[in-house]
Fold:
Amino acid sequence: VFPWMAWALRDEYYSAGGPGGRAFQAEDAHQREMRPARGLRPRELRRAQGRESSLDRVEPSVYEQFYALEREHWWFVGMRDVCRTALQRVLREAGRRSAMCLDVGCGTGLWTRDLEAFGEVCGVDIAPEALYFCRQRGLARLVRAAAERLPFDSESCELITALGVIEHLDDDKGFLSVLYRVCRPGGHVLLLTSAY
Structure:
C-alpha cells in the first residue's frame, strides 16, 4: 500500500469497495472497482450532482489502442521525453531527488511507470478500462476517481502531472483549483494539453 496514501485519502466519495476511504492495491479493474461510499458509481454521482465529466465519454477501445501504441509511437515517445526532461530540470533546480507523485488521468499507465523515476507514484483515472491496462503494466498504486474530485487531502503531493486531461473537462478552472489544493507549497504541477 502506498504509505502516504493512508492518510491522504478521504472518504467523502470514494472507497475501496465500501465505506472508509481506505488505500488499496487495485486488482484487475474488471474484478474490483473503486466505488463511491454512497453506493453510486462516480459517473452516476456526478450526473446526479450536475458534474458529469466529459472524460466519462471516452470510448473504451481508445485505451486498448493507446496501450498498443504508446510505447513506440513517435508522438507518445516524444511527449514523455519532453515531460521527463522538464521534470528533471525543475526538480534538480528545487534540490529534490524524489517526490510524492500523483498522475491524474493516468490512462494506460506508461507515463505513470516513467514517473517512478521521480519518487512514489499513484495513478488516478475514472475509467476502469484505463486502470485495467495500468495493472497489465504492473502498477498497483491506483485510485479510481474523477479528476475534478481528487480524494486526497490538501497539500499531500509534491509533484502532480495531468497529461492530456484538462482539455476534456467541463470545469477547467475547478480542476486547477483541485490541483492547487492537493499540491504542497513549493510543489510542482505539470500539465500537457492540445494546442487547439
Summary: Strands lie at 14-15, 35-36, 101-104, 121-125, 142-144, 157-163, 183-192. Confidence is low (pLDDT under 50) at residues 1-50.
